[in-house]
Amino acid sequence: MEKGEILLAKTILDKNLLTKVILGINGVAFLGFGLACFFDPTITANLVGYELSRTDAWIEVRAMYGGIQTIIGIYMLLGLVVERYREPALVFLILAYSGLAIGRWYGLAVDVGEAGIFTFGAVGFETVMAIAGAIVWIKFSASARAGSGQGSE
Q1: What SS3 state is found at 27?
Q2: Sign of torsion over alpha carbons 70, 96, 139, 22
Q3: Does the pTM of the predicted model rise above 0.85?
Q4: Least CB-packed of 82, 87, 124, 152 within 10 Å?
């Protein structure tokens, strides 16, 4: 193996490791929070100040914070362990966190009143994860193209 090939192999390995770390951390976080909210919707309600005054409210929080986040966590973990799902899971993670962060940043800009620690913590985490995921994805994609002999598309 030539020096350039060794460097390329090491670079691809490093990007793959970073992708796995990002997917693993977020998979566990989504899965854990999702399951917690699925079985106890008051967790989310208490964090953000929702009032669960009707059965529909309980079901909505259980579905949106519990059900969908549990499935997102499972998908992230699937990307962690099954290579063919790794890049799609990373792209999904980038898009999901970008959407959440944009919505929160917009809300901070236009909504009247003081936001709480939950919002500031969430928007910070979501922004960092979207940017970190994008950086790893861009490098992961560039490494994959370089390894396959393809140029920029």
Answers
A1: helix
A2: negative
A3: no
A4: 152
